[in-house]
């Protein structure tokens, strides 16, 4: 990772750590859970070598970003998008619009960035998590509990301190390893007191693409804990309340979407139909490409970096060279 520079930028009341490389049109990389800026290292090097300025922050509550309140009420999409807009103003004031690449929660934040501030985004490459239109009739947590039950991982994340205590018993390294190696296309359940449902002595077999990474993530989560990342899940219902003005608003930037066919998000009930039968295109009218990668699970940009890098570059390059835009 030689050549990647690190700095801290004061934005929106917090101190945001960013990793960046090279100069040129900015590509902003937004990570998910339980990731950090580090999950984009392959993409940073690849895009920087092709004339782009790659910028990857540790989002609010993660890694070496500090100063965020501990309560989940400060982790809504409005807060996090506010951080991002302030970051862009600070690091690239001369660029009115930037390219954005998101994964997992980073993809969710990217969708909301495009809803709130489409004037700041040239084009978006999003991975794993599709756009979710707001259902004005039901809050998201009530919907998840009704469908999956109380042991579903997002439901288990809700009570502050509870899952953190269980993770402490399991051990940070095992928790990180279990999340990053999850390849079951079905939903993830975390029954109370039963961890990931296996013996704590069962070894975790790390794939080659992950073997060098776990220690970096563990070093940050052992220092800071998981609460910052979990707070994004805890703000789901609050997001629903605050985003009522955006009900039925479309995402109006050019989009490419990439997902693995073994990703639990792709296999969630209704998602394939939404992607392939017109719903996605209706909500995201400038959706230009959907790529489903065979045999790939959730952490797609780490598992298959070469293919993902090319997909990102091929899409973004169209807007860099021609200056084309959607009108």
From TrEMBL:
Highest taxon above the source species: Eukaryota
Gene3D superfamilies the record matches: alpha/beta hydrolase (3.40.50.1820)
Annotated signal sequence range: none
Catalytic activity: (24S)-24,25-epoxycucurbitadienol + H2O = (24R)-24,25-dihydroxycucurbitadienol; an epoxide + H2O = an ethanediol
Pathway of action: Secondary metabolite biosynthesis; terpenoid biosynthesis
Membrane-crossing segments per the record: none
InterPro entries assigned: AB_hydrolase_1, AB_hydrolase_fold, Epox_hydrolase-like
EC id: 3.3.2.10
Molecular function as annotated in GO: epoxide hydrolase activity
Domain AB hydrolase-1: from-to ranges: 25-305
Keywords: Hydrolase
Similarity-based family: Belongs to the AB hydrolase superfamily. Epoxide hydrolase family.
PANTHER family xref list: EPOXIDE HYDROLASE
Annotated function: Epoxide hydrolase involved in the biosynthesis of cucurbitacin and mogroside tetracyclic triterpene natural products (e.g. siamenoside I and mogrosides IV, V and VI). Cucurbitacins have cytotoxic properties and exhibit deterrent taste as a defense barrier against herbivores. Mogrosides are nonsugar highly oxygenated compounds used as high-intensity zero-calorie sweeteners; they also possess pharmacological properties such as regulating immunity, lowering blood sugar and lipid levels, protecting the liver, and acting as antioxidants and antitumor agents.
Protein name: soluble epoxide hydrolase
Organism: Nyssa sinensis
